[in-house]
């Protein structure tokens, strides 16, 4: 009886050890930097006023409104910072994932997304790192200019609220 009990325990323990074997390897990489800036108080909660736009303006896919400027101000940039890039984080448009989706709610506009652009008016796709802005070594305060505009995503545009909320993260080199 004791032999049968010990044999059962020994065989059961072997299954436990097999379950603990590792099946893969994960590498964790990153960089610790001290060359960052502080987002100024006036840029921590921005509102970009897009105005009232006629749905007739969107006569084809890609038709867009005028560029609406906005800026993000940075302060106390470390002298070692050489470049800053931004990622706009939000829900992508279901038809064109480079555009930001308008918030889905009762009476929302349909068939339109929001394009976000850098200072050269080059589209910065949602959830992707921008090309970045070079910083000079003695540039303690930085103004990052951007633009937003409505863009028809290819489907019929219908009237309604066309709002969205995004966050942004800054990456430094």
TrEMBL record:
<protein>
    <submittedName>
        <fullName>Fimbrial protein BcfF</fullName>
    </submittedName>
</protein>
<feature type="signal peptide">
    <location>
        <begin position="1"/>
        <end position="21"/>
    </location>
</feature>
<dbReference type="InterPro" id="IPR008966">
    <property type="entry name" value="Adhesion_dom_sf"/>
</dbReference>
<dbReference type="GO" id="GO:0009289">
    <property type="term" value="C:pilus"/>
</dbReference>
<keyword id="KW-0732">Signal</keyword>
<dbReference type="InterPro" id="IPR050263">
    <property type="entry name" value="Bact_Fimbrial_Adh_Pro"/>
</dbReference>
<feature type="domain" description="Fimbrial-type adhesion">
    <location>
        <begin position="26"/>
        <end position="172"/>
    </location>
</feature>
<dbReference type="GO" id="GO:0043709">
    <property type="term" value="P:cell adhesion involved in single-species biofilm formation"/>
</dbReference>
<dbReference type="Pfam" id="PF00419">
    <property type="entry name" value="Fimbrial"/>
</dbReference>
<dbReference type="InterPro" id="IPR000259">
    <property type="entry name" value="Adhesion_dom_fimbrial"/>
</dbReference>
<dbReference type="InterPro" id="IPR036937">
    <property type="entry name" value="Adhesion_dom_fimbrial_sf"/>
</dbReference>
